[in-house]
């Protein structure tokens, strides 16, 4: 009597759940192997799906990476909008914004390095990253201008210069965190880092 066919161990999930599983698996694979060394088969295995299941949602590995970037940037910018819409003053809104960015950087394992790798090797995703940083810069500039108007920040502070300095610091911290997760604890050092950044915003015009 022939053996009964083995049941597939692949999961049959709703489309939205499968898509989210693919994105989470891809981010994990990118963090462990790097973007270039990760294959669609690797992502499918990590998500417990077939390659066909992955291709049903995404045409390529690059499309998966772009989806990760777009999801991260959209969620981050939306969260900042919620902060700015609150009743807190400019200093507290800036503090909350910086805390949000540090928190998201600390838990998005491997995303930054996969972005850097893809941009450097394949010149891919540049437009998305540029648009994200421009949007971040604009939001931080507005917060600093609000602080100037309310008297919380020096009236002659250069909002664009300070916003650029803060974003550069955040990017550097994120990269350092990715390269040395054991030595750089963004969340544990968050308050000190943010105090320092707020000090830059308040005192930049007085130096």
UniProtKB/TrEMBL annotation:
<dbReference type="InterPro" id="IPR009057">
    <property type="entry name" value="Homeodomain-like_sf"/>
</dbReference>
<feature type="DNA-binding region" description="H-T-H motif">
    <location>
        <begin position="39"/>
        <end position="58"/>
    </location>
</feature>
<keyword id="KW-0678">Repressor</keyword>
<dbReference type="GO" id="GO:0003677">
    <property type="term" value="F:DNA binding"/>
</dbReference>
<protein>
    <submittedName>
        <fullName>TetR/AcrR family transcriptional regulator</fullName>
    </submittedName>
</protein>
<dbReference type="InterPro" id="IPR001647">
    <property type="entry name" value="HTH_TetR"/>
</dbReference>
<keyword id="KW-0805">Transcription regulation</keyword>
<keyword id="KW-0238">DNA-binding</keyword>
<dbReference type="InterPro" id="IPR023772">
    <property type="entry name" value="DNA-bd_HTH_TetR-type_CS"/>
</dbReference>
<dbReference type="InterPro" id="IPR036271">
    <property type="entry name" value="Tet_transcr_reg_TetR-rel_C_sf"/>
</dbReference>
<dbReference type="Pfam" id="PF00440">
    <property type="entry name" value="TetR_N"/>
</dbReference>
<feature type="domain" description="HTH tetR-type">
    <location>
        <begin position="16"/>
        <end position="76"/>
    </location>
</feature>
<keyword id="KW-0804">Transcription</keyword>
């Amino acid at each position: 009597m022939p053996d009964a066919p083995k049941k597939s161990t692949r999961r049959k999930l709703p489309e939205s759940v499968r898509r989210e599983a693919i994105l989470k698996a891809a981010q994990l694979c990118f963090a462990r192997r790097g973007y270039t060394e990760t294959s669609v088969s690797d992502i499918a295995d990590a998500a417990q799906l077939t390659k066909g299941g992955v291709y049903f949602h995404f045409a390529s590995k690059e499309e998966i990476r772009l989806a990760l970037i777009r999801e991260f940037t959209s969620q981050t910018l939306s969260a900042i909008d919620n902060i700015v819409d609150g009743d807190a003053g400019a200093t507290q809104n800036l503090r909350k914004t910086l805390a949000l960015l540090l928190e998201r950087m600390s838990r998005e394992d491997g995303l930054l390095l996969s972005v850097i790798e893809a941009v450097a090797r394949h010149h891919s995703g540049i437009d998305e990253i540029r648009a994200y940083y421009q949007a971040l810069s604009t939001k931080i500039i507005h917060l600093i201008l609000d602080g100037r108007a309310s008297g919380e920040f020096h009236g002659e502070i250069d909002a664009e210069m300070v916003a650029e300095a803060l974003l550069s610091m955040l990017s550097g911290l994120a990269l350092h965190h990715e390269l040395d997760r054991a030595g750089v604890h963004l969340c544990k050092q968050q308050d000190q880092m943010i105090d320092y950044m707020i000090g830059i915003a308040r005192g930049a015009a007085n130096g």
